[in-house]
Each structure stands twice: as structure tokens, then as C-alpha cells.
Amino acid sequence: MKLHQILLLLCMLSCGGTGGPSPVPPDPSGSTGRLKYLALGDSYTIGQSVSVDERWPVKLAGDLEKTGKPVATPDIIAMTGWTTYNLLNALDQNKPSDKYDLVSLLIGVNNQYQGRSIEEYRTQFHELLLRSITYAAGEPKRVFVLSIPDWGVTPYGASDREKIALDIDRFNAVAKEECEKQKVLFIDITGISRQALNDPAMIATDQLHFSGIMYQLWVYEAMPKVKALL
User: Fold this and answer.
1) What pTM value is reported for the model?
2) Which residues have C-beta within 8 Å of that of residue 59, sequence separation ≥ 6?
């Protein structure tokens, strides 16, 4: 069973309420001749309610390949429901290699959803940034962060859209500040996510997450910037 299949199974267990064990630590050694990519995050990175091929890190790797940047299928450490704390804990238990050519981070929506403090988010996001740099062999220029999308535009967020949007903007402001301090690329896809308010095709079948159509838009936004990093 391939790594992405194992992680998808773990995600499904988590959604079923068992919580599931932390993902198996990725082994990038099998991708000789290709750039190694590690994607860290939560349900958006694991691609809740979409196929493996529709996950945005997988789409990004595929599009980079088409432009002459041979990137291996990304190793993904992410699970639905994870906060910054959960991701840190998973990385403590399953330390990835520190020799990745590219590392992405997208985390924080569950901090907002659970009503966790912005101060806690700043501290833990800062630590995740430092670890991401370590996994990228100490190179901040090989790390990029995607902003937290606005889940308030989904049917599940309909009753409290304005507050969700304000909260998401606050968390993203912190993430951007911390990225600037570490000289890490911050890519804002939050505005793109809000287009789903007027396009149901951008919403996944669970009516809470985003579809592969939305993820492709994020990739279009990220592609030229990420390609420049490589």
C-alpha cells in the first residue's frame, strides 16, 4: 500500500470518530531524481471529500512536472480536524526527513473553528514554521505557506459567515507576520476561497470542504511563486 493510500485510510478513521494513529513518517528516499515535497496541514491538505488526485499538493506536483520541474508525489502529513497543536504532536511522534526540496504548510482553520486563542496560534504556528524550515534542509526559501481558506462560504458556515470571515482574517494576519519574520513565502488564497459563495461547484459533496475545482484555483495562484522557489 502506498503512503498516500495509508494516510487516506488514517483520515477516514479519524472522520469516523476513532481518532486514528498519527501518520506513518514519510520516507522520501524512493524518489531518486525527483524533487522531494512534504505537505503539512489539515483537512484541506489531505483533501477531505475529494479523490487523491484532486488534493492540492498532488495537483501542484503534477503541474510543476508539466513545466519541467520533476517533483515526486508529495509526502503528506495532515488529517481532518487537526489544529496547530495536533500537527506539532504528529511531527513529534513521526519525525520526517530534513532533506526535502520543498515544504508547504496550511494550518489554522481548526484553531479558529474550536475557538482557540490567537496567541496560542501564533506560538504554535511559529514553531511549525521553524520545523518546516528544518525539513527543508534549513532553507526558508524552500518553504511556502498557504493562507487559511474561509469555510464560512460553505453551507455549514452560512449561519455565521461574517464572524468566520473576520476570525479567518485575524489568523491569516498572524500567519503572514510570522512568515515575514522567517522570510518564508506566504500565498494568500483566502480571497479565492470566497468565490465559492457564488459557485456550488467549488464546494465538496460534504458541504463543508472545498472541491477539486477550488484546489486547482489555489494551484494556479501558487504555481509561479512556488516554481520560482525551485
Assistant:
1) 0.86
2) 53, 212, 215, 216, 219
